[in-house]
Amino acid sequence: MPNNTGFPPIERLKDPGSLEVRRRLDRAAPLNTPVLLVGETGCGKDVWAEYLHAASGRDPLVHLHCGDVPETLLESEWFGYRRGAFTGAEQDFPGKWAAAGMGTLFLNRIDLLGLGIQAKLLRIIEGRRYYPLGEVAERLVTARFVFSADGDIEDRVRLGTFRADLYYRISTMTVPILPLRERPDDIRSLLAHFAGHFGVEVRLTGAGMRRLVEYPWPGNIRELQNLVESARIFGGALTDDRVEHLVRDGATILQMARAREWSLDRLEQEYIHLLLRRYPNRTTVARILGISRKSLYNRLKRYESS
């Protein structure tokens, strides 16, 4: 199926791990049950959400990234508002949830929400009703919910930064998306797709290809995509030398992570700093990570304060 992420069609993924995810989503597609996609950054959760939506036959798909909008504006952006509901509300705005209609509401990175909005979201999911700001009549939620979260969401529940009752409500059907290092059979098809997409010639020896398969891919599919795209910039071909450069940097990060018992958040932090050293343009780094430039800025601010 086509998608807007630069990732290949799901049908090209042949690893047993990917085939299992596809089987589970095919089974879930005709149901109205919420689905939670869990996995590391860059493993393709948004593409799998698009696949589930297409298989369901619903329309439209409304994609909401929970880290892109300040929490103070979430309710007005999501639920809409009536004219005059607050300063600056000069006309009615229906909101993103109303736009979803009978389609799919995809709340990407729900684990980034604060506890206040989590409580409101729980009530809405349970009651299937919400109020736009300044509105006295409630609106029904007719869309199907799909959520995504990083793999440490259960740790967040234990730490109290994510509500346990909300987690239990959205995790009725949880589908883990494996990281690329656990899906070696997908690497060749992904490489072929990205090479064709970016017009890059693959000049890897057998040893170079083995290095790609054995590399742990801390940035997952987006890191592979970035490797191929950077090859286009630096000569138009993917060679053993380019692969060796990637492997050396990534291996250094992972060795430090194991030695110092870094959390997933710390590993992500180090990977982002590595990308910033490679690419001083933050817009490029945000695109590689699959997040907005504002989300990248917020993460960097969080790292500075931690």
Q: Which helices and strands appear, and what pairs or packs with what?
A:
Blueprint: H1 16-28, E1 35-38, H2 45-56, E2 61-65, H3 71-79, H4 96-100, E3 104-108, H5 115-127, E4 129-130, E5 139-140, E6 144-149, H6 153-159, H7 164-170, E7 173-176, H8 187-198, E8 201-203, H9 206-214, H10 220-233, E9 237-239, H11 240-260, H12 264-278, H13 282-289, H14 293-305
Parallel strand pairs: 1-6, 1-7, 2-3, 3-6, 8-9
Antiparallel strand pairs: 4-5
Helix pairs in contact: 1-2, 8-10, 9-11, 11-12
In words, what does this structure look like?
The protein is an alpha/beta fold and 306 residues long. The chain has two domains: 167 residues, Rossmann fold; 126 residues, Helicase, Ruva Protein, domain 3. The chain is built from 14 helices and nine strands. The strands form three sheets. A five-stranded parallel beta sheet has the order 2-3-6-1-7. A two-stranded antiparallel ribbon has the order 4-5. Strands 8-9 form a two-stranded parallel ribbon. Helix 8 runs parallel beside helix 10, helix 9 runs parallel beside helix 11 and helix 11 packs antiparallel against helix 12. The protein is globular and about 65 Å long.
